[in-house]
Amino acid sequence: MQETINITKDRINNEEISKILLDKWYDWKWQLKNSIHKVETVEKILGVTFSDKKKQAIKTTIEKFPMSVTPYYLSLVDTDDPENDPVFKQCFPDIRELSLSNCDMSDPLHEDKDSPVEGITHRYPDRVLFHISNVCAMYCRHCTRKRKVGDVDSIPSKEVILKGIEYLKNTPQVRDVLISGGDPLMLSDDYLDWILSQLSEIPHVEVIRIGSRMPVVLPYRITDELVEVLKKYDNIWLNTHFNHPREITGSSRRALKKLSGAGIPLGNQSVLLRDVNDCPRIMKRLVHKLTANKVRPYYLYQCDLSEGLEHFRTNVGKGIEIMENLRGHTSGFAVPTYVIDAPGGGGKIPVMPSYLISWSTNKVILRNYEGVITTYKMPDDYKHNECDLECENCNLTLKTENDDLEYKTIGISKLLSDYEEEITLTPENLERDTRNSGDAS
Ligand SMILES: *Cc1c(COP(=O)(O)O)cnc(C)c1O
């Protein structure tokens, strides 16, 4: 940390400013107030000069997709070669953001479409995304909600939040609420505390998850006071968003330690980004540093089809290559799940190398990470345990306190179940259906 202050001090050749910096640097509100929005400020701080042409291109980009970087995050940029720096690329505009590809979509994940009430995306049966903030400490250039960045930097009012809470109260199948944004930790401690208390009063909400990039872009937000608030609730998990090992600094480590020390399970969601982290060695280094700080790598996302992200996207093959380099090669709990968030609101689909090579009626053929091909022989007498949902008749005798909700199957698990009639999942509007005369028999 001392290093970053020194770097910043060197760069700003003004004693007065550096004195203020030393006093205020660790104050998250100061960091936000002094966030950088202009090319000229970046030039000054990094000690670089962009050509007029480049500056103009950046300004044009900023008009559509604004820039906002915390002094802390900018201080992590390697000034010897900023343009090839993974931190710089995540926070500094690129003219390529303006070139739309024909597959780009403004809302690829249908977050607005799958929204029963303002602020809530309810896609999966038992969990929802609850957007409680439209503000972020930093505008990531690869933001999947780029369409909204800089719209109105606002925090939803209590009335709006209460409508979301009302929906959750009336929707008993929701047992997991993922509060996201924007960044939920942009809210004041008190406001966040109020929302958390509202959520924890809902009996069926078993888990509250916070998605925040603060430990990465503004670790000073993780204050003792904030941790005291979070500590009051015993079902909070927190997922953050480190993309590169360089982002794990002394300051971010201290922030993570405070959170894990408060008993909050920590996870990390990375996005696979071209020329930032699309390298098996970088990703391995990242997951090692994360686990050393008690952060469990959770997802590795294929970059979404949002507008202006084409230059960040990689082949899916690169993601599989990274997974191939992790599984077996390092601790199992350091291996994230590589997912593609399906365009059109299909949700996250895991993608991985194939380990199951073939099978017969009594054997499966597998290969491991070293290329060893092996045989697993299945038992000869394994009988299908027919499930009719009457646990009394089953030798496993699961006895839950009822739950009709739990037995509602959908998708492939419905096809697999014994107690559902369905034997096919059929797309709507099949062409062959239009050819049928109508009197089928
Ligand atoms: C990612 C996501 C979730 C949470 O998914 P998990 O796989 O449980 O982490 C929930 N709702 C929406 C809309 C999401 O995009």
From TrEMBL:
Swiss-Prot/TrEMBL cofactor(s): pyridoxal 5'-phosphate; [4Fe-4S] cluster
Binding site for [4Fe-4S] cluster: 136, 140, 143
EC number: 5.4.3.2
Enzyme class, broadest EC rank: isomerase
InterPro entries named among the record's database cross-references: Aldolase_TIM, LAM_C_dom, Lys_aminomutase/Glu_NH3_mut, Lysine_aminomutase, rSAM, rSAM_sf
Catalytic activities: L-lysine = (3S)-3,6-diaminohexanoate
Chain ranges of the Radical SAM core domain: 122-334
A GO MF label: metal ion binding
Keyword terms of this UniProt record: 4Fe-4S, Iron, Iron-sulfur, Isomerase, Metal-binding, Pyridoxal phosphate, S-adenosyl-L-methionine
Modification N6-(pyridoxal phosphate)lysine occurs at: 348
PANTHER family to which the protein is assigned, alphabetical: L-LYSINE 2,3-AMINOMUTASE, LYSINE 2,3-AMINOMUTASE-RELATED
NCBIfam families according to UniProt: KamA family radical SAM protein, lys_2_3_AblA
Family: Belongs to the radical SAM superfamily. KamA family.
Name of the protein in its database record: L-lysine 2,3-aminomutase
The species this protein was found in: Alkalibacter saccharofermentans DSM 14828
